[in-house]
Write a structure and sequence with these properties.
- The chain is of the alpha/beta class.
- It folds into two domains: about 1-170 and about 220-250, NAD(P)-binding Rossmann-like Domain (Rossmann fold); about 175-215 and about 250-319, UDP-galactose 4-epimerase, domain 1, CATH 3.90.25.10.
- Helix content is about 40%, strand content about 15%.
- The chain is built from ten helices and 14 strands.
- It has helices at about 10-20, 55-65, 80-85, 85-105, 140-160, 185-195, 220-235, 255-265, 290-295, 305-319; strands at about 1-5, 25-30, 45-50, 65-70, 110-115, 160-170, 170, 200-205, 215, 220, 245-250, 255, 275, 285.
- The protein has a seven-stranded parallel beta sheet with strand order 3-2-1-4-5-6-11, with helices on both faces.
- Strand 1, helix 1 and strand 2 form a beta-alpha-beta unit.
- Helix 4 packs parallel to helix 5 and helix 8 packs across helix 10 (about 305-319).
- The longest helix has 22 residues, at about 85-105.
- Belongs to the NAD(P)-dependent epimerase/dehydratase family.
- Its cofactor is NAD(+).
- This is UDP-glucose 4-epimerase.
Length: about 325
């Protein structure tokens, strides 16, 4: 029983591949290596270099490896950059997903776990986001993820595709030192790189209506996220049904100030962050409930904030 992991050479995808292997499920990776890394893919896992936009390649990969289901993580993931590159974002995330679903239909592969995003919510007007919270994406990236969910829904109606989409927020940490977050836009690598290079990290805004005045967000460990993908895939593989979407959230969140404190403790680098003005459009708090995922997927956070930071720093130090 083999699952295709699109984007499986990336930071999140490579953790998903390892999580599948830990429970005895085989995988094959399809990745164009635009942001992924060959060395992130285990030696015993086949790596097909190419794009999900190449329908024939995807179909051939599904057939050659006897794939029974897909975990779809491939895509352009930078929300801020997507504002300047909307056509590229839609091509990669919307057109690419359509081509993937076309290839799956041609090969009779009828199960998919889609890596969606909390960006579909935009700036919610509730303290705790649930799956019924209104979706109001504020970037082409968020819009493309929501359209991806619609594509799965419509293909489910038309062709019986069994699917679920996992919406999550900020993914951090490392499950093993050889895998690390290489994004030039994410908070953890930005702060860790600054500390390693002798620069002072920055907090944007300390006057928000939160307990310590800084923004509050959901942060989840990448290994916990990978386990959720495996849990969803196993339900589908066993013929079970799932809700169309699940939030993977903490229910309480962590502030930027708390993260800075944890960074100083984990790295041993004492610092006082620079204080800058708020960034336009940054909401004070975005936190999601993970209750539905706990009910159906056994979702729970097993890593503390200190462990998230420590594992991220260990991986950063390794490289």
């Amino acid at each position: 029983m083999t699952w295709l992991v699109t984007g499986g050479a990336g930071y999140i995808g490579s953790h998903v591949v390892r999580a599948f292997g830990q429970v005895g499920l085989g995988t094959v990776v399809l990745d164009d290596l635009s942001s992924g890394h060959k060395e992130f893919v285990p030696a015993d896992v086949p790596l097909v270099e190419g794009s999900i936009l190449d329908t024939d390649l995807v179909a051939d990969t599904l057939a050659t490896h006897g794939v029974v289901g897909v975990v779809h993580l491939a895509g352009f993931k930078y929300a801020g950059v997507s504002v300047d590159r909307p056509l590229h974002t839609y091509d990669q995330n919307v057109t690419g997903t359509a081509h993937l679903l076309e290839a799956m239909a041609s090969q009779g592969v009828d199960a998919i776990v889609f890596s969606s995003s909390a960006a579909v919510y935009g700036t919610p007007d509730v303290d705790l986001v649930t799956e019924t919270t209104a979706t109001r994406p504020e970037s082409p990236y968020g819009e493309s993820k929501l359209i991806g969910e619609w594509l799965l829904r419509d293909q489910g109606r038309a062709a019986g595709l069994r699917h679920t989409s996992l919406r999550y927020f900020n993914v951090v940490g490392s499950g093993t030192p050889e895998l690390y977050d290489t994004s030039p836009h994410n908070l953890f690598p930005l702060v860790l790189d600054a500390l390693a290079e002798g620069r002072t990290p920055r907090i944007n805004g300390t006057d928000y209506p939160t307990p310590d005045g800084t923004c509050v967000r959901d942060y989840i460990h990448v290994a916990d996220l990978a386990d959720a993908h495996v849990a969803a895939a196993r339900v589908l593989a066993d013929g079970g049904s799932l809700e169309p979407v699940y939030n993977l959230g903490s229910g309480d969140g962590v502030s930027v100030r708390q993260i800075m404190t944890a960074m100083a403790e984990a790295t041993g680098v004492a610092f006082e962050p620079e204080i800058a003005a708020r960034r336009p459009g940054d909401p004070a708090r975005i936190v999601a409930s993970g209750e539905l995922a706990a009910r159906d997927l056994g979702w729970r956070m097993t890593y503390s904030l200190d462990e998230m930071v420590t594992t991220a720093w260990q991986a950063r130090e390794t490289h």
